[in-house]
Each structure stands twice: as structure tokens, then as C-alpha cells.
């Protein structure tokens, strides 16, 4: 429980459909396809896929959710973790290189910078999905279930919890992920999240978008 685990993943396959969705491209015409290919080629072999994680027991009392490393009154997180006995807290990043490429092209090719942003969004989500699957498989071996991952800033879970997450996961030292005073992460294509572990499957089949109340999100599935 006190151990912080780290893992580096092999590069997942690119989901071009998702990348184009993040880029706001409804139709992949020849120009958009070429733009994607050029952007992806520049990133080839340059991204890292790193995760650090730690498991904590949780409890509910007097309207407060005790996550062991901190407490919260977030109604949305309490709903997500209903009937859970523990959580896996994790941080994931694909590294700083893509941030540098986005900045590089922002002034000379905004369209390429936008495509790199879209690729980065898909890459970090793919990394989180891979880690999520590993956690789910490990839970299943123990006859348990996992809930949809839940990140700071979703619903009513205040982003300020990031500070506590970074402390208990030692993100800068473990995976080179830092947090500034404005609670922005660097590298920017990074995620922190909570995965609930339960003896029952109450919420296990709910998608991460279905669990989120931001109904006007452009990326909602």
C-alpha cells in the first residue's frame, strides 16, 4: 500500500479516428490525412509512455469520502466510488517532446500544431486505457471490479486535489511529471486519475463519459 509502482509501456497503436475527432475533422480528406501522417511521423519513437500508481483503502463517513491521502466531499466522486473498498491512484504522461513540437509549429503551421494537440490527446488517453485494463485484469483475478477512472476537474471534484496526488505519488521523481502553482501539469499531455475497486459491479459498466456531467463537452462520446 505504501509502495509507489512505476511502469513504462510500449507504444500503443494509433487510433486515427479518435485523433481526427480530437482535431475536429469530420471528414479525413487528402489534406487532413497528409497532415496527420506528417505529424505522426515527427513523433515516431519520440514519445514515452510512463505511469506511476499507488493503492489506498477508502471509507465513507458523515458525508465525507476518506481517500486515505486526503478527504473530499465531492458528490460525483462519491457516486463513482459507491460500494468501493479501495482505489488505485495513478499519474500518466507521454513526455515533454510533443509539447515542444506543438510550440514549435504554433507559429509556423497552426494546423500542424492542432494536429499534434489531437495526437497528444489520443496518445495519453490510449496510455490511460492500457493502464486501466491492467488494473481491471488484476482486480478480476481477485474477483473484484473496477469503476470508470475519475480525474480532478471532472464533475465537482476540485482540481486542487492535484497537489495531494503529486505528493503521495512523487510524480516528479517517479515519471518526470511536475505541477506548477496554477495546478497545470508539465508535460501537458498527462493525466492523474482515481480507479475504484469494488467487490460488486454496481458502476463497473458505466463509461467514463457517462460518468461525467459535462454534457456540452466537444469530446463526449
Number of helices: 7
How many angstroms separate the termini?
34 Å
Could you spell the SSE succession in H and E letters? EHHEEEEHEHHEHHEEE
Global shape: elongated
Poorly predicted ranges: 205-221
What is the number of strand segments? 10
Average predicted local confidence, pLDDT: 91
Structural class: alpha+beta
Q: Give the helix proportion (percent range).
A: 25-40%
Q: Roughly what fraction of the amino acids lie in strands?
A: 15-25%
Sheet with most strands: 5 strands, antiparallel
Strands side by side in the biggest sheet: 1-2-6-10-7
- Indicate the radius of gyration in whole angstroms: 18 Å
Strand-helix topology:
Blueprint: E1 5-8, H1 16-22, H2 30-43, E2 50-57, E3 59-61, E4 64-66, E5 71-72, H3 75-80, E6 84-93, H4 97-108, H5 110-141, E7 145-146, H6 162-169, H7 171-175, E8 178-179, E9 185-186, E10 190-198
Antiparallel strand pairs: 1-2, 2-6, 3-4, 4-5, 6-10, 7-10, 8-9
Helix pairs in contact: 1-5, 2-5, 4-5
